[in-house]
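> call design_seq(struct)
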């Protein structure tokens, strides 16, 4: 394979006879010059002077006294001109992002040398004088006519009026803006290019010959430069193309090359450019996922890496794949050259600054002087914070444990570093200073550690820290000089965007090793073996056009860049890359994700149709072996039995208790009982602004408990008058609910006001309604005697085991006990679920998805209370009750539990003594089963019980 650059080097060496002292070679980018130098050296058998290599942008910049200004300063200067021209009160925050768009339009207009006086003239005048614009080509006149056909000046809407009024001053803004920039000796790129061309005297240029190599699309300033140099006999042109697409008209890949060859003939004969029509080994591969392509890459490299590694290239149409690609390179790659910079957005320095920006903008409320939990945790969890502060991890655990949704700065400043990070910042300048100081602190850590020469990422992260520091300082300078005066949110977006678009260059020898590159870096370079990843529609060509204030038809009419240009440019890159390659693999992703539809690129489809040779088509398939889950059985070994004694035996643990929840857990799943109560595993603490059903119920219980505690402070009898008075006092009831939130959810002292979000406010309102419903329900039960709420009840039990007897306790906390007419009600509040009717007592002890945990729990409490009453010779009946608050509004609602077979008459359990003996018999059997060393802990067979289990990942059932 003879590469394009090798052909150029050979031809140019012959024409110059090796004398390059007054020769400048101009490439579209710098990378090609490194390869070209190598080819040039091969042409000579003696040392020669190297020609001067410049990129096209360097050529323009060297010819001007102006310098390219900082992009942020450019927008700030434009804002001053805009305000003066329009008298607008629009803030820089609102102006900034479309100010960038306006500069991009000015830049494009200048690079294409558009008649800006005509373009930005009054739209009405533009319409009337359209026929007099002789400088427009026929197609451009048609585009202008099309614009006015769609944009009727006579029918003015409010939006159209705003567009017209701004358009009418754009000419003044454009002129004033350029004057202001010129007075500061700065410019935007298009302004500099245009000034160079308009003032250019080719005789004053420093070189005798300018060799233009490998260009494609030329804007008007480049075309004019080429023309002037060509007319002065100072230019040679080398175009890279292939007759396959050049001679097909229309074909977008050859659109600009045809024009260039017409205006500036090539030094190389057409015979050098007939490669794409030859047979090649081309394969199209579809991948089910984006990362699936990367997983295939090592296999492709092992099979296709050329002996001379630089002749093999991996081209990423989606540059976000760079990091996974770097991690997947196989060992047989000896050298690698990465042409793309490593994205700063994928480094810890970026995420650290981003987390701090979020903390001090959206994460801080200046009205109440509090931070938001999520933003605080994001900073505390960052590896840099952990390295800087020994208190960070401990503080995170405390905030999580205490559900501190809105922590104060004072409780976060646990050491000097945390004081630096969590001191509220008054303005953007303070924020910049804090970011700089924080980055310096991290730099000190890196200085104390020896640099790792084997770990590329360690070196990258050190470099990224410096890059981030310089970017923050750039903003610091702009803010300090009063150039940039924006709100904190805009400052955050600007800094984030500038960091996101920055990259860290890889150091290495570009002309050695396998090449990993983006599509733009492939210009002028040829490879024998080639793989392109993510050749999808939307990636090649890139989706969407750049935003513009100038409508499409006006852009087209005045010769400015349009989306059609961009598609043609990408088509050229695609076909040019294939033309000399011997083996090409094009991989695309078929997964549909949001707006990415998983289509192969239009260029692949077009090539498939028009290329006359066979193309292999393959599919990647991920080998999926279903994850088999082996049943888990925990034998009750002597060690485990010993552990159970330590947990449940009063002799080993004076606080031992077997709660109804533990017994229900065993009946639902013995293995879960083992994990939770024997191994004592627990799910990690989480802080969430959402209120789950358990927390919702706890707050309701808290409010109900404290209402009745206050009502019975001077007597246990509850009357109708007491409840009516309370129902009328909604503010007082809301206070009980608020106090529940403070204590159980926000972990605040009672004298501090909680900060509710929308969902929490809704939950608060619902709990208040439930409290009112409870009181209304109790009105129908008055007068009654309130015995107590949240009352603990326990009973000592002896559990017979093959190895002896275990002394333990069963019991728990009863939500409420009240008495009336010789009946003691054991009431359990429920804020969710439906009333269950067990068929009989035995059904409560048989594992089943419809087994009633609630009834089991209430019956257990009832059996303990029955025994306590018997021991006191108290002959009151015990009635277990489940009060479903959300169902209690219905007429004739009774919380008393019913029992009975399906489709048969049900019996209300108004005296539990009738069922106590049978219940205790089954209860003893259950306890003996739990402590029987011969019965293992096994997984449940009822899959419904696994849906919300904390141990689902551990169990893998």
């Amino acid at each position: 394979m003879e590469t394009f650059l090798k052909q150029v080097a050979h031809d140019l060496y012959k024409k110059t006879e090796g004398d390059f002292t007054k020769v400048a070679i101009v490439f579209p980018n710098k990378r090609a010059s490194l390869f070209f130098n190598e080819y040039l050296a091969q042409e000579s058998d003696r040392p020669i002077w190297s020609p001067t290599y410049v990129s096209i942008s360097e050529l323009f910049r060297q010819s001007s006294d102006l310098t390219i200004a900082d992009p942020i300063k450019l927008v700030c200067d434009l804002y001053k001109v805009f305000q003066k021209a329009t008298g607008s009160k629009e803030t820089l925050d609102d102006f900034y992002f479309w100010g960038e768009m306006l500069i991009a339009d000015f830049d494009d207009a200048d690079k294409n040398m558009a008649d800006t006086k005509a373009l930005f003239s009054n739209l009405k005048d533009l319409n009337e004088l359209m026929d007099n614009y002789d400088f427009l080509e026929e197609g451009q006149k048609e585009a202008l006519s099309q614009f006015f056909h769609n944009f009727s000046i006579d029918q003015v809407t409010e939006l159209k009026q705003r567009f017209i009024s701004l358009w009418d001053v754009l000419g003044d803004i454009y002129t004033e803006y350029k004057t202001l920039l010129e007075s500061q000796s700065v410019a935007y790129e298009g302004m500099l290019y245009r000034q160079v061309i308009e003032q250019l005297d080719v005789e004053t240029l420093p070189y005798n010959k300018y060799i233009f190599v490998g260009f494609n699309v030329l804007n008007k300033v480049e075309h004019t430069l080429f023309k002037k140099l060509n007319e002065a006999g100072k230019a040679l042109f080398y175009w890279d193309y292939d007759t396959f697409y050049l001679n097909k008209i229309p074909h977008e890949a050859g659109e600009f090359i045809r024009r260039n060859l017409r205006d500036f003939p090539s030094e190389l004969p057409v015979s050098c450019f007939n490669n794409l029509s030859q047979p090649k080994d081309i394969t199209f591969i579809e991948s089910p996922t984006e990362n699936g392509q990367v997983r295939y890459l090592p296999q492709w490299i092992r099979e296709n890496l050329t002996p001379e590694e630089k002749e093999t290239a991996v081209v990423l149409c989606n540059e976000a794949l760079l990091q996974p690609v770097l991690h997947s390179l196989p060992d047989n790659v000896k050298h690698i050259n990465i042409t793309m910079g490593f994205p700063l957005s994928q480094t810890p320095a970026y995420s650290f600054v981003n987390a701090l920006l979020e903390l001090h903008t959206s994460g801080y409320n200046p009205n109440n002087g509090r931070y938001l939990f999520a933003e605080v945790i994001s900073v505390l969890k960052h590896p840099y914070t952990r390295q800087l502060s020994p208190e960070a991890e401990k503080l995170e655990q405390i905030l999580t444990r205490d559900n501190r949704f809105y922590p104060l700065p004072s409780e976060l400043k646990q050491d000097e570093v945390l004081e630096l990070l969590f001191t509220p910042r008054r303005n953007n300048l303070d924020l910049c200073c804090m970011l700089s100081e924080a980055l310096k602190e991290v730099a000190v850590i890196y200085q104390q550690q020896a640099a790792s020469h084997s770990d590329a990422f360690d070196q990258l992260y050190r470099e990224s820290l410096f890059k981030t520091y310089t970017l923050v300082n750039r903003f610091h300078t702009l803010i300090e000089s009063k150039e940039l005066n924006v709100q904190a949110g805009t400052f955050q977006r600007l800094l984030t965007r500038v960091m996101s678009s920055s990259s860290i260059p890889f150091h290495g020898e570009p002309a050695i090793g396998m090449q990993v590159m983006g599509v733009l870096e492939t210009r002028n370079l040829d490879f024998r073996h080639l793989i392109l990843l993510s050749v999808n529609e939307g990636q090649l060509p890139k989706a969407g056009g750049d935003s513009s204030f100038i409508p499409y038809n006006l852009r087209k009419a005045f010769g400015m860049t349009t989306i059609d240009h961009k598609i043609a440019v990408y088509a050229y890159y695609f076909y040019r890359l294939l033309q000399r390659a011997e083996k090409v693999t094009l991989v695309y992703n078929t997964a549909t994700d949001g707006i990415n539809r998983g289509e192969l690129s239009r260029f692949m489809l077009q090539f498939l149709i028009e290329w006359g040779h066979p193309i292999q088509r393959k599919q990647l398939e991920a080998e999926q072996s279903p994850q088999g889950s082996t049943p888990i059985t925990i034998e009750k070994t002597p060690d485990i039995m010993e552990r159970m004694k330590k947990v449940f035996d009063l002799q080993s643990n004076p606080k031992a208790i077997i709660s109804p929840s533990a017994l229900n857990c065993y009946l639902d799943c013995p293995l879960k009982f083992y994990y939770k109560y024997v191994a004592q595993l627990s799910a990690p603490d989480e802080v969430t602004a959402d209120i789950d059903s358990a927390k919702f119920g706890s707050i309701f219980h808290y409010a109900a408990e404290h209402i009745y505690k206050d009502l019975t402070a001077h007597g246990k009898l509850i009357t109708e008058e007491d409840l009516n008075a309370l129902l009328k006092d909604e503010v007082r009831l809301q206070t009980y609910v608020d106090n529940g939130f403070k204590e159980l959810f926000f972990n605040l002292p009672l004298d501090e006001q909680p900060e509710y979000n929308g969902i929490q406010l809704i939950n608060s309102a619902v709990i208040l309604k439930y409290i009112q419903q409870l009181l209304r329900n109790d009105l129908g039960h008055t007068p009654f005697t309130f015995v107590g709420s949240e009352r603990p009840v326990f009973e000592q039990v002896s559990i017979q085991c093959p190895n002896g007897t275990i002394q333990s306790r069963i019991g728990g906390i009863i939500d409420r006990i009240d008495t009336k007419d010789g009946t003691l009600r054991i009431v359990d509040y429920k804020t969710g679920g439906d009333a269950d009717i067990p068929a009989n007592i035995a059904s409560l002890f048989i594992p089943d998805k419809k087994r009633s945990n609630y009834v089991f729990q209430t019956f257990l409490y009832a059996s303990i209370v029955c025994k306590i009453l018997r021991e006191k010779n108290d002959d009151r009946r015990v009635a277990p009750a489940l009060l479903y608050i959300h169902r209690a509004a219905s007429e004739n609602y009774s919380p008393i539990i019913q029992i009975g077979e399906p489709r048969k008459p049900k019996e209300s359990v108004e005296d539990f003594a009738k069922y106590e003996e049978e219940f205790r018999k089954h209860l003893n059997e259950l306890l003996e089963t739990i402590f029987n060393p011969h019965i293992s802990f096994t997984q449940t067979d009822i899959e419904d019980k696994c849906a919300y289990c904390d141990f689902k990942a551990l169990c893998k059932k």
